[in-house]
Automatic annotation (TrEMBL), chain A:
Amidase domain span: 22-463
Entry annotated with the keyword Protein biosynthesis: yes
SUPFAM superfamilies the UniProt entry points to: Amidase signature (AS) enzymes (SSF75304)
Active site: 76 (charge relay system), 151 (charge relay system), 175 (acyl-ester intermediate)
Gene field: gatA
UniProt keyword annotations, A-Z: ATP-binding, Ligase, Nucleotide-binding, Protein biosynthesis, Transferase
Record organism: gamma proteobacterium HTCC2207
Family: Belongs to the amidase family. GatA subfamily.
The name this protein goes by in its record: Glutamyl-tRNA(Gln) amidotransferase subunit A
TrEMBL record, chain B:
Gene Ontology terms describing biological process: glutaminyl-tRNAGln biosynthesis via transamidation; regulation of translational fidelity; translation
Family stated for the protein in its record: Belongs to the GatC family.
Record-linked NCBIfam families: gatC
UniProt keyword Transport, yes or no: no
EC number: 6.3.5.-
UniProt cross-references to Pfam families, sorted A to Z: GatC (PF02686)
Protein name per Swiss-Prot or TrEMBL: Aspartyl/glutamyl-tRNA(Asn/Gln) amidotransferase subunit C
UniProt-recorded Gene Ontology molecular function terms: asparaginyl-tRNA synthase (glutamine-hydrolyzing) activity; ATP binding; glutaminyl-tRNA synthase (glutamine-hydrolyzing) activity; transferase activity
Domain of life of the source: Bacteria
Amino acid sequence: MHNLTIAELVKGLQEKAFSSVELTQHFLARIAKLDANYNAVITVTADQALKAAAAADKRLAAGDAPALCGVPILHKDIFCTDGVRTSCGSKMLDNFIPPYNATVVENFEQAGAVVLGKTNMDEFAMGSSNETSFYGPVKNPWASDSVPGGSSGGSAAAVAARLAPGATATDTGGSIRQPAALCGITGLKPTYGRVSRWGMIAFASSLDQGGPMARTAEDCAILLNCMASYDDKDSTCIDREVPDYSATLNDGIKGLKIGVPLEYFSEGLDPETEKAVRTALAEFEAQGAELVEISLPNTGLSVPAYYVIAPAEASANLTRFDGVRYGYRCENPSDLNDLYTRTRAEGFGDEVKRRILIGTYCLSAGYYDAYYGKAQQVRQLIQQDFEKAFQQVDVIMGPTTPSPAFKFGSKGDDPVAMYLEDIYTIATNLAGLPGMSVPCGMVDEKPVGLQIIGNYFDEARMLNTAHQFQQATDWHTLTPEGIA
Amino acid sequence: MSIERQEIEKLATLSRIAIGEDTITEVSQRLSSVLELVDQLQAVNTDGVEAMSHPMKATQRLREDEVSEINQREAFQAIAPDTEEGLFLVPKVIE
């Protein structure tokens, strides 16, 4: 059952080929048996899942089943779940049990999905390797000595290892696409404002966006149908009709104009990864799409601009963790200042503290214009690059990452080496554009991801394009060893 | 650019994060390396470029000023480290 796609599971449940309780038991058993190898799941919610599955079976029997009725999924541990610990991968929230559901969680509940548990992640979503989690690193199902990517590494590894058919994730600088690429699955970061951020623990509010992870583009479309919604509670959400992302999957892509940015195929890109991506581009050409060479000249500035904007916003967002209202509090504080400074020193990990300090520096008196103001201007330049490109092309394609999954500890002591891992994904967050990653090859027995960047609110076209690619290729069907 | 010890201490105060004496050098080295990366921005000509705040130039929505939430004080305080009679407790601030 774990090799079926979400589309197949929905059909099987409706046709009573199996029940939601059977399905849920099956995935819970897989998590119990296999997750020791991956560390992808922080909290398993077996009792609630089985209860939800029994309720789903009743609705299926009664014939009033909503879209995802009885389908098991996992939520990234950044989405608040009523009554279930939501840690955000941090010691700071190790004891935090939210009294409410995030809008995304609510949407899945309304759609009848069954939540198996919460997935591991880099602490407060700050990382590209899952090594910063308080709960320990997640292992890549394709190579246990390698990272799964981050920050949504737990969701990606869980889907790759068939611990769940789909999972929610979030992406601030590449946190959906990069782990999707490294784990050989499909992941989509929607347009900024498409998915509600309410109840999704904030990292960098002008960049954060939730999105789905699954094995196929078809499944991502099903999940996005449920995830995307307008939400009054998120003031940056855009009030725009949600199309049926499944409806256009089978459209042909003849005549599609694909922009291939020069800057995404330059120095730093592993030659074997490039070969896999070029082969994928040729497949689109064979289907009648046209490749157009384009330039995104400010690509190189996206990483420096991001490392001002994201830490600056994080330093403001994370002031709320002060040991007063919820979460970790240090032992025996001598006074209020000691309570704040020790709670934060003990509750946050090194990378989170580093980013808060950087952000505080960039926002401090005398530096604001030179850093944050400047970065927001550069952000405008990066957006203009894309605007220009989308006058010529329908989608943009290139590699998701410079190379396949790297080994644990291999980025060493220099945080900048890790930051450059997101060189191809960060610009879309800065511009607010949607991006996705689709498996397109293998290098050294590790998956390679093809990135598809779309224009604003063009997720349907991206999913259609990815689906057509997956109809002609089988990279998305490959299974890591020992999974079967 | 490198960042001085004094500056690290100031940042620690501003961000309310205690930094141990034994880690100051390491923190300073790593912050310097990140600042070196972001300093690439200084060379960019941004004359006349507007700073971007929302990708779709969306502005904050307004709504009627009416009560939209119910009082959930008990639920919220149930997860707090220390409370008494509906108040959050912190160490004594005023002698």
